[in-house]
Specification:
Elements (H helix, E strand, L loop, with lengths): L1 H10 L2 H10 L2 H18 L1 H4 L31 H37 L1 H16 L2 H12 L3 H10 L3 H14 L3 H8 L4 H9 L4 H24 L11 H5 L5 H6 L1 H29 L7
Helix pairs in contact: 2-15, 3-5, 3-15, 5-6, 5-8, 5-9, 5-12, 5-15, 6-9, 7-8, 9-12, 10-11, 12-15
Length: about 290
């Protein structure tokens, strides 16, 4: 029976085997369910929200949760439930878009640096070190003042200042892989360097890269929240979980208006935890060291 089960597992596609290992990771499955919930309620916000997220209703301002307003209202009467749902759309979009930009930049620079080495590696790594020494929040704050506040500018700024960590990770992986036999054989056969990097090296970098990508998504979400909290992130009246937390800077809201800032804070917490769990599960499912149980 064990031989039959072993042959059945080996006959499965790599994707099916990875999915089977992912399902055996309880925290990863819980994270997937949690993130699916956050994503779906944000995606279908126009159907779930009961009010316009920007509509003012001074007659109902600063109201605690009730049947009319599930999460209460803020100091100008806007519905917190609606703003939380729509804010999820913005925060998730910023997180994934900025992480995509930083990942693309990091993979390209890390691959070139690790594969070609020499002066190319020296120049890219020194430039990476310089960027890493910048106080990222201060630089983004300064740049946001000059290029203006918008969703696109926040995504762009977070993306172009978040790639150094991914670059260093990819470089280290490529340095070890470029001396492997399959790479040396491809090079001996005259395969173009670009093809070797794309088809032979980068697929083997995916597993260790996944954890960094999840950190990049979470870092972008948290950085957007911090920028919006400081007033230079997503501009009002567009809601994001970050600029909803900005109201907590007021002492009366912090003490007496828990319903105003707690929902976005909880949503950020759930999202960050779920993405971390998913990243750990994917890493364990795809990592070649976990192919044999």
């Amino acid at each position: 029976m064990q031989d039959i089960a072993s042959r059945t597992v080996q006959s499965q596609s790599p994707t099916a085997q990875a999915w089977r290992r992912f399902r055996r990771h309880p925290l990863a499955v819980a994270g997937l369910v949690m993130f699916a919930f956050v994503f779906l309620v944000s995606l279908f916000a126009p159907l779930i929200a009961r009010y316009d997220y920007a509509a003012l209703n001074l007659a109902d301002k600063f109201q605690p949760p009730s049947l009319a307003h599930f999460f209460g209202t803020d100091r100008v009467g806007r519905d917190i439930w609606s703003r939380t749902l729509y804010g999820g759309r913005v925060s998730l979009a910023v997180g994934f878009a900025a992480a995509t930009i930083s990942t693309i930049i990091g993979v390209i620079l890390g691959s070139i640096s690790g594969y070609y080495r020499g002066m190319t590696d020296h120049v890219i790594m020194r430039f990476t070190d310089v960027v890493m020494t910048f106080p990222r929040v201060v630089i983004i704050l300064t740049a946001a003042i000059y290029i203006g506040q918008s969703i696109a500018s926040v995504i762009f700024l977070i993306g172009i200042f978040s790639w150094p960590g991914i670059t260093r990770l990819v470089r280290g992986q490529v340095l070890s892989l470029r001396e492997q036999q399959f790479v040396l054989a491809s090079r001996a056969l005259g395969t173009h360097n670009r093809r070797i990097i794309i088809t032979h090296i980068l697929p083997n970098v995916v597993a260790p890269l996944l954890a960094s990508v999840t950190f990049a998504v979470n870092g972008a979400i948290l950085l957007e929240a911090g920028l919006s909290f400081l007033g230079v992130g997503i501009p009002l009246p567009t809601p994001s979980w970050g600029n909803m937390l900005e109201t907590a800077r007021s002492l009366d809201v912090l003490q007496d208006g828990l319903w105003i800032w707690a929902p976005p804070a909880v949503m950020i917490l759930l999202t960050v935890l779920s993405i971390n769990f998913i990243g750990d599960g994917l890493r364990d499912a795809i990592d070649p060291r976990h192919q044999q149980s």
